[in-house]
Batch of 2 targets.
Target 1
Amino acid sequence: MTRPAGSDSLKVSRRAKKDCAFISFEPVFWERLKMLTRTILLGVVALAFAATVCVGQVPESEPVIKTTAETAEAKEVTFPYVGELMGSDVNIRSGAGTAYYRCGKLSAPARVIVVGVEHSWLKILPPAGSFSWISKNFVELDPDNPGIGIVTGDSVRVWAGSDYVEPMRSHSLQAKLNKGDQVKLAGEEAGKGDYYKIVPPPGAHLWVSAQYVKYIGPVPKPEPPKLPPRPEPVVEPEPKVETVVKPAPKPKPAKPAPPPVVKPKKPSAETIRLKQCYKLAEQINAELKKPIAKQNYGPIKKALNAIKDDPQAGKAKLYAEYQLDLVGRFELALQVDNEIKNQDAKLKNAREQIKNRYAVKVENLPDPGKFIAIGHLRPSKIYTAETGGQRYLIVDETGKITCYAAPADSASGIDIDKFINRKVGLLGQAVKDPYNAVSLVKFTQIVDLEG
């Protein structure tokens, strides 16, 4: 501060002393603040530069993979890639979820090829040992290559195979094949019921939980074949010209060697048996076109059993067993048809016998028009010999009394007891009985209608 002009002495109050102290401190404070700001700016620039250098060192083609279940859904992952199992007995399933049946198990450090993702499930190519099912009705075995089948229809479904699920209950569709496509049978025992066990065709996939698979890297691209080094051209020396005195005699042309004799390859026993199966299948179709009464599968069954029992038949054995099963069904239908015919014949015979017996009975029946009363004869318990005047009852089929009966004077010699409880017809005259609601028949003749 500058001293003011005048004679008054400088009076510094406490407030002025504080202001002076503040004023004397202010230049130092701002200097230190500037230094601190400069240091912070230098640090920020250094960090930005370091981050730029670090980012530049990361290869652009290397994906950033997490180890959680969301790994396969990261946008940085490029399919297909190689994954490695991280657990023991991890289930490989037919679909993306635990509701789908398991098709096998894998343990670390087995590796799989991942081709897609759905939620927390990875879509993989079927690992070694996987198989599929296809209906035998749409596959014909190749006689020249028994391990190969030819598809005979269009849009034939292929199902995910499992050792834990029967073929007919396998519901996970893997692929659809068309006529002419080839399938490879899986192992010797490739037939089970109505299905063939085959190697999964192209387009088939299985699924595994992403939490048990870690990213290894992209699928290595196949290296192009290396070409042999190109040979350098050989420069031949110029031939020396020599004076020919006498030409040498020309050699006689050699006789051409006879062509080698190619012997035809003998077909294997398996191929021969397969061809026999195809011929027998044609015979089965021919028998089916005949009327049921003329169908006969005996010789066909005998030939098929011979193929089935042949230890060298190979895959022809499966085809023979399948055809034998079909023949068994056809023979069962024949047996049912014969049973129905026999039952019809027995029923017809029984009807004829009933008709004949009925005709005989009808012929033996007397003419009901000549009888005054017809019914079953019963003794009366009211009108007895003790009460005077023996009478009898005539009752119908329901037991109802239709009339009373008593012999006329001209019929006193008839033995009535032998007609008791039998159906009879009475000849005579009906008279009114004033003491009863039903009439009284004075019969002169009695006829046994059951005799």
Target 2
Amino acid sequence: MYFFNSAGIMLTYFTINYGLGAYIATYCILFGIGMGIPYSVIFQVASSWFPAHRATVVGIIASGFGLGALVFTPIQTRIINPNDQQPIKGMYPPEVVERIPRAFLVLGGLVLGLEITGLLLMRTCPDSRVQDKLKRAREDNSKCDTPPVEQESLSIMEAIKCVDFYILFGVVFCDVIPISLLTSTFKVYGIDSGLKDKYLSDIATTCAAFNCVGRVVWGSLVDHCSSKCPLLWLLLQWGLLFVSYPYVAAGPAGPYLYAIWIFAIFFTLSGHFVIVPAACTRSFGPKNMATIYGLVYAATVRQCR
């Protein structure tokens, strides 16, 4: 399962020439399975080493998803469009299109190497280490007037019966709409506004840095307060940015305002990938977090429509 991700990318080198159905089978279904199944497991394994700072750890791990574009976007641009050729009537020149299949092989090979490295390094924290860290956390909390409360872990069936499960499911279901809209159209919007492809690629690369740093910042914020307040702040800020987004690219300052808005939106949306898993852990406990979060994240299936 861990290698379905890279396999889906590399096999697309062949299926891209056999129609939309074959392309969907490798780059959407196979790639999606390889990314989705290990997703919550990695969070649970990583956070097991730091039980007192789970949200921050999830933010650091999730920042890798944001950092990926910072690494892969320049490589992708260098392979496919090294001369910064612009589309003509919505279509790129044939020499640009011909380089796309090779990009799948190169990027898939890089992903495979990272997957093997990560799989060799990843392991669950021994129970003794967890207990020691929890003991130190309790000793720190003993200085407070309020005694520490032991967190109970719910079973999967108990979690499904909780209203919090469906609230989080609804949050993910709604949040995925602007995420999909932004990631699939922000470059198209930039091209329609007259911005150069190279400039947009540079913006996409820089966005990855904001996405990466944002996940760590949001994770640290959640560790120091509840999940609800950061989530409300995120949604309010996100809404304001999206409402004003269609108007920022016009005028002489358009290229600069466009970049600022994209950076701010990506910094904001990064919190979604940290707050929701942290809320799952706080609501249902850490024991079955991977499975429960996987069920909550199944709300993203609407992206496939």
